[in-house]
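Researcher: Structure for this, please.
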Amino acid sequence: QLQLVESGGGLVRSGESLRVSCTASGFGFNSYHISWFRQAPGKEREAVSCIGSTDENVHYTDSVKGRFTTSRDNAKNTVYLQMNSLRPEDTATYSCAAGAVQCSESVVSTPGWASWYDFWGQGTQVTVSS
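Model: Predicted structure, token format:
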């Protein structure tokens, strides 16, 4: 079993930066691929980024490419999502998810992958004001 806890959300202004973290407890974190998802009120959940178990693959959805960076520190059982140049449309609850789903371009560009993940955090709210 793996427990995931997100932290670092908050309220920022358009153009500012924020880093959210996903810290895991339990066994086997290093073997899981991790994805960040977000869901805004009234909208479908979407994958934002994914990172392979050993950091060998990283992919981003088109709307965040060049602005967001995902990294992981397996020694700390933590995955990070650095968000720069934030926009009001980035406002959402951000959640991390762990699973055996291989990180790929398909994960971040094709709906429906969320059901393949085994473990989820509770989410952290990110609000970007204009």
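Researcher: Any notable elements?
Model: The mean pLDDT is 95. The two ends are 40 Å apart (CA to CA).
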